[in-house]
Design a protein that fits this description.
The protein has about 300 residues and is of the alpha/beta class. It has 12 helices and 11 strands.
């Protein structure tokens, strides 16, 4: 028997594209999967689509529960508590199309590590439009993943994430948190607590871009401009404050170096101009690209981190 993977699927009014996603899960070369769905109150036929898939795949292979009704972040994080005997856990969005070897590639990496060490696999994605036509690729990240990067940005799309049981237990230990996104939170926690993170530069799925996306890829210039304006209005500073508060709930689980980085980052955020510049340098925080690091410096100057 192969490694058991629990696919954690959050849904809300996703009937338009859900069938393609379910078919791509069914085609996985890693066949020892089970599907755990948290539906957050769909009114469009999503539940009928899920029920039909459960009948086809087998009643014991698919479980469908009701979500907490507090938004997509809470819906996905609630799936961490689903009763399952799986070895690995994969988040799944309702509107993507997975490569047939997506789970197998992730398990190949994760199974090479000690099972008691928290570990996360994530990858690049191919972007597609509503009709499934190619749009481009998500950004290629070339700098090493780590906590000093995670404080600034998320490189790990939730739809690509697969993590081991030790990582799941670690995330559960932090309890109920108020964070910006479930995938950024996973990257923050696993990197902060000394876990292993592997970013695969080869895409593992088609990431659909459409009008109903909760969070898009922000590849278009207009999207980036809107994010810049929101940052100038303080949104990024609020996001960081929420992430910091959540990390501090269980700061004893962080490594010594992560606690140092977090402390330096927090002090810098509340310092004067030169204190912010020096403090961010001491913290060692970094973005993945040159434009990103220029943006980090500007945000430090403007005190919007």
């Amino acid at each position: 028997m192969g490694s058991r993977v629990a696919v954690l699927l959050g849904t809300l009014n996703g009937a338009e594209f859900l069938g393609e996603q379910l078919e791509s899960i069914e085609r996985q070369s890693a066949t020892c999967w089970q599907l755990v769905v948290s539906d957050d109150g769909s009114q469009d036929g999503t539940q009928e689509c899920l029920s039909a898939f459960r009948r086809r795949a087998g009643e014991g292979r698919v479980s469908i529960t009701s979500g907490p009704g507090r938004g997509y972040v809470a819906n996905f994080l609630s799936l961490l508590h689903a009763p399952t005997g799986a070895d690995y856990f994969a988040f799944a969005d309702q509107d993507d199309v997975w490569d047939a070897d997506k789970l197998q590639r992730a398990v190949c990496f994760l199974s090479s590590l000690p099972p008691d060490r928290p570990a996360l696999y994530c990858s690049r994605t191919r972007l597609i439009d509503e009709q499934g036509g190619p749009v481009g690729l998500s950004p290629l990240f070339t700098r090493p993943p780590g906590f000093a990067n995670a404080l600034i940005q998320n490189i790990a799309g939730g739809n690509t994430m697969v993590f081991n049981r030790a990582a799941r237990e670690l995330l559960i230990a932090f309890g109920d948190v108020d964070v910006v996104s479930h995938d950024w939170w996973v990257y923050l926690v696993i990197s902060a607590c000394g876990g292993e993170i592997f970013y695969d530069s080869e895409p593992s799925l088609d990431y659909r871009q459409h009008r109903g996306n909760q969070i898009g890829s922000s590849q278009h210039l207009s999207d980036r401009w809107n994010r810049l304006l929101l940052g100038l209005r303080g949104r990024k500073r609020d996001w960081n404050a929420r992430n910091i508060a959540a990390l501090n709930q269980m700061s004893t689980l962080l490594t010594d170096d992560s606690r140092r980085v977090l402390s330096e980052f927090c002090h810098a955020r509340h310092a004067g101009l030169w204190g912010r510049i020096i403090g961010m340098r001491r913290a060692g925080v970094y973005a993945q690209s040159v434009p990103g690091n220029i943006g980090l410096f500007v945000a430090t100057i403007l005190n919007i981190l």
